[in-house]
């Protein structure tokens, strides 16, 4: 016996609803998998930065006068070094230019050369998508 138009319509609606449910579940699973991947990636990056800091420390102990880490001060010819190493956690002191900086600690991503008599660093906060430039006087050990 042929189906009535109403029963065909009901079957079509039911199939459409089920298809939408399946797609919604697939999207939820994909989002969950992406969140897990992002969390693992962040953890791996942090562990890599910490490992790089350890390697930096080993190199610094073995060759303490690495190029780019020391400078000749104008005050009596004293050799000075960067106070912070790549991978080290630091705090950014609030001042006029950093008052809108993200909260929490930062990690030194790169030592930069001296500018205007002071070393500079690239730093990154995990809650911010970008790096910042900070002078040595603006940083403190965490």
Short description:
By secondary structure, this protein is of the alpha+beta class. The protein contains 1 helix and 7 strands. The longest helix is centred in the first third of the chain and has 58 residues.
Question: What can you see in these coordinates?
Answer:
By secondary structure, the protein is of the alpha+beta class. The protein folds into 2 domains: 1-64; 66-142, SH3 type barrels. Helix content is 41%, strand content 25%. It contains 1 helix and 7 strands, in the order αβββββββ. It has one helix at 5-62; strands at 70-72, 79-81, 89-92, 106-115, 118-124, 131-135, 139-141. Strands 6-5-4-3-7 form a 5-stranded antiparallel sheet, with no helix packed on it. Strands 1-2 form a two-stranded antiparallel ribbon. Strand 4 and strand 5 form a beta hairpin. The protein starts with a helix and ends with a strand. The model is unreliable at 66-75 (pLDDT under 50).
Features:
1 helix; SH3 type barrels; rod-shaped; 5-stranded antiparallel β-sheet; 25% strand; 142 residues; alpha+beta; 2 domains
Strand order, sheet with most strands: 6-5-4-3-7
Radius of gyration: 27 Å
Succession of helices and strands: HEEEEEEE
CATH architecture of the largest domain: Roll
Count of all domains: 2
Task: Indicate the mean pLDDT.
Answer: 80
For the termini, the CA-CA separation is 79 Å
Which regions contain 5 or more consecutive residues with pLDDT less than 50? 66-75
Backbone shape: rod-shaped
CATH topology-level fold name of the largest domain: SH3 type barrels
The residue fraction in helices comes out at 40-55%
Assess the beta-strand content as a share of residues: 15-25%
Task: Give the CATH class of the largest domain.
Answer: Mainly Beta
Q: Briefly note the structural class of the backbone.
A: alpha+beta
Largest sheet: 5 strands, antiparallel
Number of strands: 7
Number of helices: 1
